[in-house]
Amino acid sequence: MEADFRREYGIVLKHELYSMTWREFCVLLAGLSSDSRTAQEIRSRARNDSGANEVVEDPEQAEKAVAEVWGVQF
To answer: Going by C-beta distance under 8 Å and a sequence separation of 6 or more, which residues neighbour residue 72?
Structure first.
């Protein structure tokens, strides 16, 4: 996740995490591209949990999947 934040937003989490709001962090996390390592890990966990091999296309379902994996609410 740290690498994704740096690559996609230019944010060094260890320097900026405590100065951002929880909402801002969640919005940025949800906004990571589908090519990010974080998104790949979420898809991998979803496949392992459900046995499915498909990508979640519906944004609301994807957001719920992120929330389940990371334990966050949007």
So the answer is: 26, 29, 66
pLDDT one-digit tens code per residue, 20-49: 999 999 899 889 998 899 888 887 877 776
pLDDT at 9 over 90: yes
Read off φ and ψ for residue 53, nearest 5 degrees: -120, 25
Q: How far apart, in whole angstroms, are the C-alpha atoms of residue 63 and residue 59?
A: 6
Beta strands of 1-74 (E only): which ranges? none
pTM reported for the whole predicted model: 0.59
Extents of the domains making up the chain: 2-70
Query: Cα(24)–Cα(8) distance, rounded to whole angstroms?
Result: 15
Close Cβ partners of 53 (under 8 Å, ≥ 6 residues apart)? 47
